Amino acid sequence: VFYTMAAVTLASAIGAVTMRSPVYCAIWFALTLLGTAGLFFFQGAQFLGVATIVVYAGAILVTFLFVLMLSSPEGNALSTG
């Protein structure tokens, strides 16, 4: 189980680094964080697993996606009329 979770975590980390789209990068990053938390849970470190989910996936990743939604990826400003 450990090696499978570690392989999924490494593969998703590589996906997060190599993706060109910031949205796909954030999705791969979320999978990386969940895999890391799963590895912590598997090793018996429940506090670190919960802290990883709450701090990173719950705060940083959501903030990153919120900024992506507010920004215009093409660099075009919206006209107000």
Walk me through the structure.
The chain is mostly helical. Helix content is 78%, strand content 0%. It is built from 3 helices and no strands. It has helices at 2-18, 22-42, 46-70. The mean pLDDT is 85.
Order of helices and strands: HHH
Low-confidence stretches: none
Tell me the total number of β-strands.
Answer: 0
Helix segment tally: 3
Mean pLDDT: 85
Structural class: mainly alpha
Straight-line distance between termini: 57 Å
The main pleated sheet reads as: none
- Write down the overall geometry: flat
- Based on CA atoms alone, the radius of gyration comes out at 16 Å
Helical content class: over 70%
Strand percentage: under 5%
What tags apply to this protein structure?
0% strand, mainly alpha, 81 residues
Give a quick rundown of the structure.
The chain is mainly alpha-helical. The protein has helices at residues 2-18, 22-42, 46-70.
List the helices and strands and how they pair.
Elements lengths: L1 H17 L3 H21 L3 H25 L11
